[in-house]
Amino acid sequence: MQTRGRPGQVVTVSTSPLLDHHGTFSGAVIVVRDETRLADLERDINERRQFHKIVGASQKMQHVYSLIEDLADVQSTVLITGESGTGKELVAEALHFKGREATSHWLK
After folding, report:
1. pLDDT tens sequence across 22-77
2. How confident is the model at residue 33, as a pLDDT?
3. Are 32 and 15 in contact (CB under 8 A)?
4. Cα dihedral 97, 98, 101, 107 sign
5. What is the distance between the alpha carbons of residues 39 and 32, in angstroms, rounded to a whole number?
6. Helix (H, G, I), strand (E, B) or coil at 19
């Protein structure tokens, strides 16, 4: 579902007719449930094999992804250490990207 000023929403719609005791239709009940947050969470779980431009699904990588998310909205300097070729620059980029995302979320 697309609405003005909002990104796409995921909704479910359920309908039921209102019938009297003779079976005569007198209206309907329509329930619209916004499931955007659930869909976003499911997408996030599936994307955990890849986080920003970092690829990895191991338990240690899940921990790195969680650390990036935890640090994203903290106004602080972060020191990233590791051996050459371990992807420190990718972690820095992901942290920067998620930090901007968190900042723009708070400004809305």
Report:
1. 999 999 999 999 988 888 887 777 666 777 788 887 888 888 888 888 888 788 88
2. 92
3. no
4. negative
5. 15
6. strand
The answer to whether 52 and 98 are in contact (CB under 8 A) is: yes
Q: How does DSSP classify residue 86? A: S
Instruction: Measure the CA–CA gap between 68 and 62, rounded to whole angstroms.
Output: 10
- Give counts: helices (H), strands (E), the chain: 3, 4
Taking the model in full, what pTM does it have?
0.49
CB 15 within 8 A of CB 29: yes
The pair of three-digit structure tokens given for residue 95, joined into one six-digit string:
């942290």
Q: Say whether 102 sits in a helix, a strand or coil.
A: helix
pLDDT of residue 104: 43
What does the angle CA 40 – CA 8 – CA 31 come to, to the nearest 5 degrees? 85
Residues 6+ apart with CB under 8 A from 68: 51, 52, 91, 94, 95, 98
